[in-house]
Structures are given as structure tokens and as C-alpha cells.
Input
Amino acid sequence: MIKKILLTLLITTHSLVASAHNLVLGQPLPAVDVAKYGEVILEGKDTQFVPWSSTQLPGKVRVIQAIAGRSAAKEMNAPLMAALTAAEFPRDAYQTTTIINQNDAVWGTGSFVKSSAQSSKTDFPWSSIVLDQAGIVAQSWQLQNRSSAIIVLDKQGIVQFVQEGSLNDDAIQNLLSLIQQQLEK
Output
């Protein structure tokens, strides 16, 4: 009986540890590069992909939304994304970066995920959108599958906030306040 309880606790603890991200408040993000596809950029009315690196992030206050390539993951923090758009933070000092894990998409939907990323860049040209075909970012940062992670970086690229899953209304308001505080520094 005790062995069963200990085994259950061990398995539960291991799964919790295995699914926990490795992002640390007060530290920079673990460096990661996305070569395939990478950042979506606009060239006229067309989109192109260029290699992307997390070392490009310092310089602005940023909210990073790292999401699985699934509509359910995108919807998890849609209220936050709407609030960020409505806040109209200054584009010279703030940017949202969305990293889409195409490797964590429903089987057979990869081309839809790619076209959605391209369409989002057209709709929100001031945002940075990264399409990570192989899921390198999620692996490097040890993010949960089928989920959404929200990360706030200061201008130096230091993690100020991180949460996986949906943010509630209070968390969204606190996050908006944190961004404003970081912009005023």
C-alpha cells in the first residue's frame, strides 16, 4: 500500500517537474534560434520568413505570447491580446512577439497554421510574429504542450513575468500595469 502511494507521488511529482518551464524571473530568456520558418516580415503586401533569434528581443518592453499552433491555445489569452491592442502602448518602446509552435498543431493543419501566421502579420504589422516549425522555442524553454505562455521582458530582455495557461481579468490588469511601469523606467 505504501509503495503504491509513493509510486503515485513520484510519478505525479515527476510529471509536474517535467512540464514546468525553465524561465526565471530576473534573468534573461534562454537563448534560442528559429531557422525554419522564423519571423514573418512584410515586403510590400507579401510576407517572407527570416531566421529569428531570442537575442533580438532586448531594446523594447515586450510581451511574448508563445502558443501551440492550435486555435484553443490562441484563444486562451485572446482577452489579453485585445487589451494590449486597446492599450496602444508606444510602438517605439513596446512590442508584442507571438511565437507559434507549428510542431504542436493538430495533425494535418500545419499549412493553416502557417497561413494564419502570415495573415496575422498583415493584420498586425507592428507585432513580431515567429513561426517555429520544429517547436525549438517550446523545447528550449520547456513550455507546456497545447498551451499558451505569456512572458513580459523589460527593455534589457530580463524576464519580469511568466505564466502558462489563461490569464484572468485581474492578471491582465496587473500585467498592463507592469508593462506601463517598465515603459516609465
In short: The longest helix spans residues 2-19. The chain has one domain: 22-184. Confidence is low (pLDDT under 50) at residues 3-19.
